[in-house]
TrEMBL record:
It holds the Pfam family DUF3502. Keywords: Signal. Residues 477-546 form the DUF3502 domain. Residues 1-21 form the signal peptide. This is DUF3502 domain-containing protein. Residues 27-54 have a biased composition (Low complexity). SUPFAM superfamilies: Periplasmic binding protein-like II (SSF53850). It comes from the Bacteria. Residues 27-72 are annotated as: Disordered. InterPro entries: DUF3502 (IPR022627).
């Protein structure tokens, strides 16, 4: 059976390759390859000697298979995949790895080994790995992993010439996304855009309590949220209405801006505790703007001071490090904060631990209907610049993404051991012991809705929620905008220091008179170089507009 799968995979790859070759003459990849392989202006070595010296590329093999558009798989190779996180230590990884390697050997004559970047000081270790020159074949990448910065430094291979040959399914399936992950004419990422997720941060709240307090419609604004919090304060003794930890300290600011303006978050401009710089709106996306220097921020500071004075959160909120999600499940707090992907599981958990709680979500975009799709570069995969087997790596990634058996091994583990499927739903086997059987691979960048098995432990209404979001969301406009921090690096550091020092107290109503606190905050930001960074950002946005719309 597996031999049949191997044969069919090769035939399908050949057919698709011929089709893609016939159709792709005028696409962006063809234009990119006309620029040669020097990657001029990027500093990316992946387009020069590295790319053409690898074992699987046509230039180095010179064999008939490569020349005809298919990869040479005659020699077995081991492929490495770099993932962030700490591996399972209970032996499940080795068992699952053996299963997926049985399939990879049959289908592309390769084995796949995960290499891990531990969570302790993960950002530093990940960036060092990108700069090391080690020959990783596939790498989990994303904007939160400094994707564009590492791409500019040459950590990843250019893929526009390799994808049509080695992974024709991926080349075709992601055709709408390639412009968003192209910079200086080169594609360096296969994005995670076939998995439903949104920039829909928000507040979770108990629907049963909201009804008890006279709130009969879904909460869609901060005023109604305040009514809910006051209801908890008045009627649920011993419950903290809105508990706060280090992980949620920025939530009111982000949420306030999104629910009171149409500004677009620009995370690529780092300013510490608070994101100072935003795009003005979807229709003024090339205008740099800051809510901190708008009346919006004063209004928020005033409300947060009022909420703090009313006791909606603990007095030592800025120092609390407890687990607010566990508190919600125990009935000790009335809120939690994250996005809809977390909500899909948390709602089901709350149904079990707090029966009748009817957990709901106030997504900040609900107020004004300004939902954005997630950035295409939020997550995905790259091929390492020094990979010795880039075509085989892309073949493996195509299987991880599209082959149901391989996909589910990476995402869920072994059927019958890590999960079972009952009535179309994924569940844990009877007698499941997490200590012995829990498995994970942290292969988020290859998630694909079409191969997902709905979980028994997730909210049944989540897919209707996703469909509604998909119908409303606008496409994120800054995926390929790479902000060059070099001219303002000192100012960004100074601004980050100010936001981290003064921001939390203002956001949580602990800075005294809110109007005076904001005024002083603005003065400190100006002294730290705010105007210089704003001007530099606007300059680069103007250039980006000319490139995108020119």
């Amino acid at each position: 059976m597996l031999n049949m799968r191997k044969t069919m995979s090769i035939v399908l790859a050949l057919v698709l390759t011929v089709c893609m070759a016939a159709c792709s003459g005028g696409n962006n990849s063809g234009k990119s390859s006309e620029n040669g392989s020097s990657a001029s202006g990027t500093g990316n070595n992946a387009g020069s000697g590295n790319k053409n010296s690898n074992a699987d590329t046509p230039a180095s093999t010179g064999n008939a298979a490569a020349d005809s558009g298919s990869a040479d798989t005659s020699k077995e190779v081991e492929l490495s995949i770099l993932v962030p996180g700490d591996p399972p230590t209970n032996g499940t990884l080795e068992k699952v790895e053996a299963k997926w390697n049985d399939l990879f050997k049959q289908m592309i004559n390769a084995t796949v080994k995960l290499k891990w970047v531990g969570w302790t000081d993960w950002q530093t270790k990940y960036d060092l790995a990108m700069a090391s020159g080690e020959a990783y074949d596939l790498i989990v990448v994303g904007d939160w992993l400094n994707f564009w910065a590492n791409s500019k430094k040459g950590a990843y291979m250019n893929l526009e010439d390799l994808l049509p040959k080695a992974a024709p399914e991926l080349w075709s399936e992601f055709k709408e996304d390639w412009p968003s992950v192209t910079n200086d004419g080169h594609i360096t990422m296969i994005p995670e855009t076939h998995y439903s997720q949104w920039t829909d941060q928000g507040i979770y709240y108990r629907g049963d309590w909201a009804k008890e307090f006279g709130i009969t419609e879904p909460i869609k604004d901060f005023d109604t949220l305040g009514k809910y919090l006051q209801g908890i304060k008045d009627k649920k003794k011993g419950v903290i209405p809105y508990d706060v930890t280090a992980g949620t300290k920025y939530e009111p600011y982000w949420g306030w801006v999104q629910s009171h303006t149409d500004a677009l978050l620009m995370e690529m401009v780092p300013t510490g505790f608070l994101h100072l710089f935003w795009g003005k709106s979807y229709y003024e996306k090339y205008t740099a703007w800051s809510p901190v220097f708008d009346q919006t921020f004063v209004d928020e500071a005033v409300m947060m001071k009022d909420w703090a004075d009313k006791g909606y959160w603990r007095k030592d909120a800025l120092n609390f490090t407890g687990d607010t999600r566990a508190e919600l499940q125990e009935g000790k707090t009335g809120t939690d904060a994250h996005h809809s992907q977390t909500f899909r599981g948390l709602r089901a958990t709350m149904d079990q631990k707090q029966p009748g709680s009817e957990l709901q979500m106030f997504a900040y975009a609900d107020t004004r209907g300004n939902l954005m799709t997630d950035s295409p570069v939020h997550g995905g995969f790259a091929v390492g610049a020094n990979s010795k087997n880039p075509e085989r790596a892309l073949m493996a990634l195509e299987l991880i993404h599209n082959d149901p058996d391989i996909y589910r091994l990476f995402q869920y583990g072994i059927e019958g051991e890590q999960y079972v499927v009952k009535d179309g739903l994924r569940a844990q086997p009877d007698g499941y012991d997490p200590a012995k059987s829990d498995f994970f691979s942290n292969m988020w960048g290859a998630r694909n809705d079409k191969n997902e098995i709905p979980s028994k432990n997730e909210y049944a209404g989540i897919y209707d929620m996703f469909k509604e979001k998909a119908a409303k969301a606008k496409r994120y406009p800054y995926a390929s905008f790479v902000f060059d921090k070099t001219p303002v690096q000192a100012e960004l550091s100074a601004l980050s220091n100010v936001t981290s020092t003064m921001g939390p107290a203002i956001i949580w109503g602990k800075a005294g008179d809110p109007v005076k606190a904001v005024e002083n905050f603005r003065k400190k930001l100006k002294a730290a170089g705010y105007d210089k960074v704003l001007a530099e950002l606007q300059k680069q946005l103007d250039a980006y507009k000319a490139k995108v719309e020119g």
